[in-house]
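Table 4 source record.
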Amino acid sequence: MARILIVDDQDNARSMLSEMLQAEGYAVDQAPTGEA
Protein backbone atom coordinates (compact mmCIF):
# COMPACT_ATOMS: atom_id res chain seq x y z
CA MET A 1 0.00 0.00 0.00
CA ALA A 2 1.30 3.44 -0.90
CA ARG A 3 1.55 6.11 1.80
CA ILE A 4 0.86 9.77 0.96
CA LEU A 5 1.67 12.87 3.01
CA ILE A 6 -0.70 15.81 2.61
CA VAL A 7 0.64 19.20 3.74
CA ASP A 8 -1.86 22.06 3.58
CA ASP A 9 -2.74 24.85 6.00
CA GLN A 10 -6.46 24.59 5.15
CA ASP A 11 -8.09 21.93 7.32
CA ASN A 12 -11.04 21.43 4.96
CA ALA A 13 -8.86 20.84 1.90
CA ARG A 14 -6.61 18.45 3.82
CA SER A 15 -9.54 16.45 5.19
CA MET A 16 -11.36 16.21 1.86
CA LEU A 17 -8.26 15.06 -0.02
CA SER A 18 -7.41 12.61 2.76
CA GLU A 19 -10.87 11.03 2.62
CA MET A 20 -10.73 10.71 -1.17
CA LEU A 21 -7.32 9.05 -1.11
CA GLN A 22 -8.22 6.70 1.73
CA ALA A 23 -11.32 5.60 -0.20
CA GLU A 24 -8.98 4.63 -3.05
CA GLY A 25 -6.89 2.51 -0.68
CA TYR A 26 -3.99 4.82 0.16
CA ALA A 27 -2.55 5.29 3.65
CA VAL A 28 -2.60 9.02 4.37
CA ASP A 29 -0.67 11.19 6.82
CA GLN A 30 -1.53 14.87 7.28
CA ALA A 31 0.38 17.94 8.42
CA PRO A 32 -0.85 21.55 8.71
CA THR A 33 2.59 23.01 7.89
CA GLY A 34 5.94 21.95 6.53
CA GLU A 35 7.67 23.04 9.74
CA ALA A 36 9.38 20.45 11.90
